[in-house]
Amino acid sequence: MSSSYVTLEQVAQHAGVSLATASRVINGSTRQVSERLREKVNASAEELGYLANASAQTLARNSSSLVGLLVHDIADPYFSSIARGVTRHTEEQGLVTVLGTTHRSTQKESTLLATLRAHRAKAIVLVGSRSTDEESNTRLIREIEAFQQQGGRVACVSQPGLPADTVNPDNHTGAAELARHLIALGHRRFAILAGPTNLSTARERLDGFHSALSAAGIELEHHNIVHGDFTRDGGFESTRRLMRLGTDATCLFAVNDVMATGAMAALRDSGIRVPQELSVAGFDDIPTLRDLTPALTTVRLPLEQMGERAAQMALETDHEGQDRTVNVQGEVLMRESTQRPAL
Amino acid sequence: MSSSYVTLEQVAQHAGVSLATASRVINGSTRQVSERLREKVNASAEELGYLANASAQTLARNSSSLVGLLVHDIADPYFSSIARGVTRHTEEQGLVTVLGTTHRSTQKESTLLATLRAHRAKAIVLVGSRSTDEESNTRLIREIEAFQQQGGRVACVSQPGLPADTVNPDNHTGAAELARHLIALGHRRFAILAGPTNLSTARERLDGFHSALSAAGIELEHHNIVHGDFTRDGGFESTRRLMRLGTDATCLFAVNDVMATGAMAALRDSGIRVPQELSVAGFDDIPTLRDLTPALTTVRLPLEQMGERAAQMALETDHEGQDRTVNVQGEVLMRESTQRPAL
DNA sequence: CTAACCTGGGAAAGAGTTTTCCCACAAGTC
DNA sequence: GACTTGTGGGAAAACTCTTTCCCAGGTTAG
């Protein structure tokens, strides 16, 4: 009663073969087993409702069917889109996805990485901006290497520079191209709703935008840059601050769509019409946010595919060479939230 | 080299004690261990970087630290909000969340449930509408019971009638109250963008709305009901269909926010102004969709807390009695997408 | 002073797989 | 007919941990 499990040994007995033979049938080993016995074992397994004990398998094989997925916040549509791509691939492969949310805490990240290591996870997909903090970065690298030592594989999304396969959106180019489109529209004075300075994604987008402005001979004034924390409310607050201080910009670039959403809300609250009085652009093309009014000009990233590709790279068994990097280009989508500036 | 792991035995040797003693120290058993040895063992574990092998523990204890979370689609903000609540609780408890996405396939649901069983998951949180299909329902119940037989615990969100603890939003009352508000605004002719008929959530919301209309002596005409599939695009298409066929309704109720979003997009495409020509209301108050224009009238559900509560119930060890049900009331939020009908 | 009782610690038996090693037997070779 | 070769099957070790059982030594009570 206490143990309502069917073990492989029971299956073997029921089929009248040895434990080893049963195992060989169940997970198709290299060794041949006669068709007769094979059928007998399969029939017994079916009849008894055999379900292999995953922890015993993991222990014996020293590798589990778990794939870790670490994101900052699963409720953030940026991450949930990527997560969907990851789960699509892992589930297709019959693997199990372990979801860990770090909420930008390197502490939690470490804990989760250790847990995944303890579970002998087969692979880990790391999503989200890498911090520029030296210390936590080297620690992260050490942990990744420890995991790889154990035979685990790692792939990252948006975290260039780690010793692992990487899916890397070209934030710099995307932002620069967006800037050029906006300049072409006639804008000359820009405000930027930047992200946390220590996150590479935020910095790359800022840099890319900035460099395109410079190339066009446009100055970006210091007081026209405010920082948000990549959340909707952060974007809202930072935009209010910008408005309170006053700005002569004709176009506001928020480095991600989620903050752009907050910005548009703040502008509406302040009675500023978008795009008539101020153009607004974002980055990511978050699917859930495509129905905002006015429709947001942005740079589309194929988030779901990025997650899928990362999972795929992390699980490719044949590849054993150098770490690979897949660069992903964004596509500028000019929509309703931007127009040529009023004279 | 092959095995770069530190085992408990190595820790024990390093500390000069037996394996059993080391284990007693590490996971604070009932048996006492002298302070001296205790410190020695802990120091050794620290020094060697001991990390317990989770699968060995699972095998020995016949219970893992895994908590399953089954949703239809992690990119759907309804589910990702709930998922956030679930992970908050599980991670707080030092447990590991396993994410499975079923995409409304009972086949995948079964597979995932079996996998979780094979891993000796400690608990499972099941999220999403229960199907009304008799056959898949009884199978689901059998699988849940099999899991419980093994000592696993189950909690559901929005799936009343299963042999498990349940967090149950009062869809009927919420929809009815919303209907009363809309009637009070002056609406008499309604169109409904209903959900898949076989999902309880969709049905309850439809029923609740309908019963409030009946109570007010308002007929709901058959041609004013269309069905979507709970997705944005489904809402879009169904609304187009509704418009093509023509409707005399002054208010459109979509049974969830995601479909309401698609409906608003379709109406805009058709040049129909919301709310001036047609009022629109949704259900859920999805956080990511709060910035739509016009702001959507809806029924707020505390999605994140619902997930958290479900996880909490699933993990409460002391509770061993009857299955509990927590009812959650929605709150009607009248916003910009509804107004009194034009005369 | 001895009997009963604690208490800390160690040996060993599982938990359910995988996998290696070896044996038995049949078939083919000279 | 003995010897090799090949093939299917079984015994047992290994994976790492938990936990029970038991023993030795010290403490207390009578």
Question: What's the CATH H-level superfamily name of the largest domain in chain A?
Answer: Response regulator
Count of individual helical segments of chain A: 12
Strand percentage of chain A lies at 15-25%
Secondary structure tally: strands of chain A: 12
At the third CATH level, what is the topology name of the largest domain in chain A?
Answer: Rossmann fold
Which two chains have the most extensive interface, and how many residues on each? Answer: A-B, 54 and 54 residues
Tell me the domain tally of chain A: 3
First-residue to last-residue Cα separation of chain A:
82 Å
Helical proportion of chain A, percent range? 40-55%
CATH class group of the largest domain in chain A: Alpha Beta
User: Per the principal axes of the C-alpha atoms, what is the gross shape of chain A?
Assistant: elongated
How would you portray this structure in words?
The structure is a homodimer of 343-residue chains. With 343 residues, chain A is an alpha/beta fold. Chain A has three domains: 45 residues, no CATH class; 131 residues, Response regulator (Rossmann fold), CATH 3.40.50.2300; 131 residues, 3-Layer(aba) Sandwich (Rossmann fold), CATH 3.40.50.2300. In chain A, 45% of the residues lie in helices and 15% in strands. Chain A contains twelve helices and twelve strands. In chain A, the strands form three sheets. The first copy, chain A, has a six-stranded parallel beta sheet with strand order 2-1-3-4-5-11, with helices on both faces. The first copy, chain A, has a four-stranded parallel beta sheet with strand order 7-6-8-9, with helices on both faces. In chain A, β3, α7 and β4 form a beta-alpha-beta unit. In chain A, α5 packs across α12. The model of chain A has no long low-confidence stretch (mean pLDDT 93). At the A-B interface, α4, α5, β2, α6 and α11 of A face α4, α5, β2, α6 and α11 of B. Chain A binds a DNA duplex (30 and 30 nucleotides) through α2 and α4.
